[in-house]
From TrEMBL:
It comes from the Eukaryota. Gene3D superfamilies: NAD(P)-binding Rossmann-like Domain. This is Uncharacterized protein. InterPro entries: NAD(P)-bd_dom_sf (IPR036291), TIC32 (IPR055280). It comes from Capsicum annuum.
Length: 212
């Protein structure tokens, strides 16, 4: 009995040609399945991170609202000079927070919104550390790799585009000729690249202290 699709075409499952023209390659199928699973996991992890960020933001807002409500409650129960002092204190407290955020003035931790990575890591000797920085060929990740090398840390930059990765390496070496930095090809969507990178890294006989 002849098989017919819903649109009247004789093509089965919309695959061009006969089944015999496309032999099943188990290895390729497994690679595709692994890649799909990897992408699905990355999407899920990104979603979890986004939800975590939202939860943290919501908690910060709730804390701010709680503190504001607490101040308001205390102010309402106060009178005279005490009430005036509390109002001035509340305005000063909120103004101080906004001022630090806008101007970058350091807070209780010693750091502020204008603090740089070099300032945060000043005085650190990471000569015994080995981080792997994924996607370190540009942007904030490249800046992270640059600062890590300033602290005597051996940095392994991984990227899909090796030309861009090499440019990043040369950029780091231009500013710091003593920088210990290498590049390695890694495509996060391919299990083959994961295996290849893992094998190459193991051959270096180095610890993996930080994975970014």
């Amino acid at each position: 009995m002849a098989h017919h699709s819903l649109n009247g075409s004789s093509k089965r499952l919309r695959i061009e040609g006969g089944w015999d023209e496309k032999p099943l390659d188990l290895g390729s199928c497994m690679d595709q399945v692994q890649q799909l699973m990897m992408k699905a996991r990355m999407i899920y992890e990104a979603k979890e991170q986004n939800e975590e960020h939202i939860n943290i933001t919501q908690q910060i807002i709730l804390n701010e609202l709680f503190m504001h409500a607490l101040f308001q409650s205390v102010i309402r129960r106060s009178s005279g000079g005490k009430k005036k002092q509390l109002i001035v204190g509340l305005i000063s407290f909120q103004g101080e927070k906004m001022l630090r955020m806008i101007t970058g003035r350091p807070g209780p931790s010693g750091f502020g919104s204008a603090t740089t990575a070099e300032q945060v890591t000043e005085g650190i000797d990471g000569s015994n550390l080995t981080p792997t920085v994924t996607g370190g060929a540009s942007g904030i990740v490249l800046e992270t790799a640059r600062v890590l090398t300033l602290r005597n840390i051996y940095v392994m930059i991984t990227a899909r585009n090796m030309e861009a990765a090499n440019e990043a390496k040369q950029c780091i070496l231009k500013d710091n000729k003593a920088a210990r930095v290498d590049i390695e090809k890694l495509d996060l969507s391919s299990i083959r690249f994961f295996k290849g990178f893992s094998d190459n890294f193991i051959e270096l006989n180095l610890p993996l202290n930080i994975l970014m």
